[in-house]
Amino acid sequence: MIEMLREIIFWGNNLLDYSISAGIIFIGMLVVKVVESVALKKLKGLAEKTTNTIDDFLIGIIRKIALPLAYFGVVYISINSLTLDSFIKKGFDILAIFVLVLATARFTTAIFKYVLELYWLKRGRSDALKRSLNGILVVVKVVVWGLALVLFLDNMGFKISAVIAGLGIGGVAVALAAQAILGDLFSYFAILFDRPFEIGDFIIIGDYLGAVEHVGIKTTRIRSLGGEQLVFSNTDLTNSRVRNYKRMEKRRVVFKIGVTYQTKLEELKAIPEIIKKVINNIKDTTFDRAHFLSYGDFALIFEIVYYVMGADYNKYMDVQQEINFAIKKEFEVKGIDFAYPTQTLYINKS
């Protein structure tokens, strides 16, 4: 029977060769199918019982990349077991290289996507951060697929070295011409990963202040208190001293009051204790100090320092207003007068 199969030849192969090739496809496909339906299913069940995401990622890689690659590998081995025309064999080799490069590129981008997703989950699932990371992922995909194309063409026999050298020279010229843009791009990465501020934070840069609305690849936009939008290049922000009030745990407040020179010494000594009592009776405040600071032109000046627990400016103003009302009330009870600009004229009758 085997001899009969060997005697029947067409397209350069006998029936036994075709039977072996078919057997390789059948057994290989069966093995891959068993792995897909049994082993992968069992792994998926185990992954559902864990809290981490690495096992889900690996199962996804196996299902989307490894299994299709395995099916193609079975077909490639089966076809290569036959004696083929050189043109056809070269075509299958080119297809194999294409599939391998495609799988490598998909695997690389999947790893980058997974890493960026882990970073997003670690940073609190911010929608703004997700948009920024999606922008980075687009850049990564362009680079990876560009390298994959170069690798494929190199394996096809194209002279890639001369092209890369030309691109290198052109890249230097482009970099010199667009160094400001590249500087803003790297500053964008610094802002994204170092996080000196985030969308919604209230920041001050020099004489400008406002809430961060958008962090882009080249510019960051801030909404000022006056309502207009301020646009800064990312390089300007990373090179500046940025004060971030959103992350202020407590606000230190310093203010002064003045009383008249006619105030008695006993009343002056009582003022620091009065102010301390007033501040301690107000919620979310911590008293620091109150001192008779100096003799002014028309007032005896006291300096008071306290802390407001929190960064909200409106809350600080509400607390300060309540303190002012309470001090006014206590001074009226004690008969202490606030000072205001006065001038005394002395007239000599002679």
Provide an overview of this structure.
There is one protein chain. The protein has 350 residues and is of the alpha+beta class. It folds into three domains: 123 residues, no CATH class; 59 residues, SH3 type barrels; 85 residues, Alpha-Beta Plaits (2-Layer Sandwich). The chain is built from ten helices and ten strands. Strands 6-5-4-3-7 form a five-stranded antiparallel beta sheet. A three-stranded antiparallel beta sheet has the order 8-10-9. The N and C termini lie far apart (152 Å).
Q: Which percent bin holds the helix content?
A: 55-70%
Supply the number of structural domains.
Answer: 3
Number of helices: 10
The order of strands across the largest sheet is: 6-5-4-3-7
Count of DSSP strands: 10
Task: Give me the secondary-structure category.
Answer: alpha+beta
Order of helices and strands: HEEHHHHHHEEEEHEEHEEH
Strand content: 15-25%
Oligomer: single chain
Mean pLDDT: 82
Q: What overall geometry do the principal axes of the alpha carbons give?
A: elongated
Runs with pLDDT <50, length 5+?
A: none
Radius of gyration: 38 Å
User: Mind summarizing the main beta sheet?
Assistant: 5 strands, antiparallel
| Terminal residue distance | 152 Å
Entry keywords:
350 residues; alpha+beta; SH3 type barrels; Alpha-Beta Plaits; 3 domains; 5-stranded antiparallel beta sheet; 3-stranded antiparallel beta sheet; 10 strands; 60% helix; elongated
